[in-house]
């Protein structure tokens, strides 16, 4: 069944100049690493010729001499021990400048004046800043802020205190429920409760015996000469086999 399809799959040929094939070849050339470095590889195969007096060589040598630690310190090593014109080290400008820089950088000398004057501060006791600090300390102090219960700050017979006590008694749960203590332990029947009465009323509304009266309980006497009775008798006589 699939023999013809398998043979047909092998006989499909795509023309090499179709747009898709040309686009795929162009993409392959763009992403090819071999073609990307081909020019560099060919340039490496040709070699190079750089003379000793070429500008890049001279630049590299000059940079190396500048960066060399030996060349950097060569002048300093030659000038060691050749200071002349100063009878002592204190009169040498360079040494004096170095000593001054060291003194500025010394943390102990930098803070010496501050440490000497730190204990020589005198502030009047009634200055504005001291009074403000005392008031702030009084405000943030927990001792002055907190008043214990036994330390009364007002008379117990003041109107606001009496009013507060009455408000506390009204809000108290014990006082609120004190009038219901006499009900504790008393039995209660559910005969007259709202839920029981409601259930009874619903039962009466749904009771079929009270809602509907049976026919045998009705006192009814049929009239013998009514049209429907006469018609029923005539039909019975017509249908009677006897």
Automatic annotation (TrEMBL):
Which keywords, in A-to-Z order, does the entry hold? Actin-binding, Repeat
Q: Which domain of life, per UniProt? A: Eukaryota
Cellular component per GO, a single term: Z disc
Alphabetically, the GO molecular function entries are: actin filament binding
Biological process GO annotation list?
A: cardiac muscle thin filament assembly
Please identify the protein, giving its name as recorded: NEBU protein
